[in-house]
Recover the amino acids of this structure.
């Protein structure tokens, strides 16, 4: 082992030789430390630095009181709201259902209701309609049907002139 | 009162249990604040980072998956991500001389009677950390101060274990070089 190898392992694994992964390198490092002043200085410096970290970790560090107070207010604020979930979706739904929004909702719905009623009314058959009322209803169904060919035959059944047109086309 | 584990308390925090949240805070806030302080070098920044971390714990408790990592690891991950956001917003913190200027005073959380005894040690440690880039500083603190394993540190830093070991090696080399330099030029620090 040379000094470069020793320093590389020292940086990679730290000053605790038992943490070095290769048992052979651990033995070589211990032997190298006995013979190299530079290796001993570097090793002692690394040990001292790691001890600084550990010493800092063992110090009685406390988070400031104002930080604790601010953090505890997070949960307390929620607790004061009677454990209602603080979700934007819930709030949005709640506001939509409040009384002040109902007049707007009703005003928006009136045109829909009126147009629906008008559409139903046009489809209704007057009570004094004669036997042609059935034909009229069928024409309506023809108008809204999907298949034009199929309903052309039905149409021609009501309007003989249309049937003539079809016969002419066939020729 | 029955002792509840961190995971058991977190399950209650998901259900918005304030008492469980307060108990978790009491267990972990000091270690988190110490890490934040050594990482950022600024007491006010450390305060903000810790507060933002616990806000996220409360509002996103459901994102903690029991059994995947320890809660302590997850807390440090959240805080570290907050620190990254902070560094990106304030680019001046990447300059080591600013970090050194901010930590020459003893932290406010130390007991007054201890400040005079520990002042020199604090200054030396803070000045050494100031010479190391933030990512290497984080790796060193997580392993040597916070006591995390390489795997846990990799999880916190969102790196592979190999990358974390490499980062740690560079950090040890950097802080060892800084220490040597400080010993050769003591009057300049």
């Amino acid at each position: 082992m040379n000094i470069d190898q020793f320093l590389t392992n020292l940086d990679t694994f730290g000053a605790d030789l038992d943490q070095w992964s290769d048992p052979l390198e651990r033995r070589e490092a211990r032997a190298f430390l006995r013979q190299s002043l530079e290796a001993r200085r570097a090793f002692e410096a690394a040990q001292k630095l790691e001890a600084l970290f550990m010493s800092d970790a063992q110090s009685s560090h406390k988070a400031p009181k104002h930080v604790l107070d601010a953090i505890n207010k997070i949960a307390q604020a929620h607790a004061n709201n009677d454990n209602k979930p603080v979700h934007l979706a819930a709030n949005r739904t709640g506001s939509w259902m409040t009384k002040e929004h109902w007049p707007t909702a009703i005003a928006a719905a009136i045109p829909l209701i009126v147009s629906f009623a008008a559409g139903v009314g046009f489809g209704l058959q007057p009570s004094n309609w004669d036997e042609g009322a059935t034909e009229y209803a069928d024409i309506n169904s023809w108008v809204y049907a999907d298949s034009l060919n199929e309903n052309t035959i039905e149409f021609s059944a009501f309007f003989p002139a249309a049937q003539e047109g079809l016969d002419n086309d066939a020729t | 009162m029955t002792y509840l584990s961190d995971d058991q308390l977190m399950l209650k925090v998901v259900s918005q249990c304030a008492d469980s949240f307060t108990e978790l805070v009491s267990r972990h806030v000091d270690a988190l604040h110490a890490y934040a302080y050594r990482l950022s070098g600024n007491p006010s920044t450390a305060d903000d980072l810790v507060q933002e971390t616990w806000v996220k714990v409360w509002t996103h408790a459901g994102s903690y998956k029991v059994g995947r990592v320890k809660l302590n690891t997850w807390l440090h991950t959240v805080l570290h991500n907050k620190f990254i956001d902070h560094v990106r917003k304030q680019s001046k913190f990447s300059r080591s001389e600013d970090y050194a200027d901010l930590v020459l005073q003893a932290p406010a959380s130390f007991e007054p009677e201890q400040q005079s005894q520990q002042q020199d040690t604090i200054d030396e440690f803070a000045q050494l950390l100031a010479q190391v880039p933030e990512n290497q500083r984080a790796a060193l603190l997580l392993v040597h101060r916070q006591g995390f394993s390489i795997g846990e540190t990799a999880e916190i830093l969102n790196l592979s274990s190999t990358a974390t070991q490499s980062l740690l090696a560079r950090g040890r080399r950097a802080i060892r070089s800084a220490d040597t330099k400080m010993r050769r030029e003591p009057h300049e620090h």
Observations:
- Residues 95-114 of chain B have pLDDT under 50 and may be disordered.
- Residues 43 and 109 of chain B are 9 Å apart (CA to CA).
- Chain B touches chain A through 47 residues (CB under 8 Å).
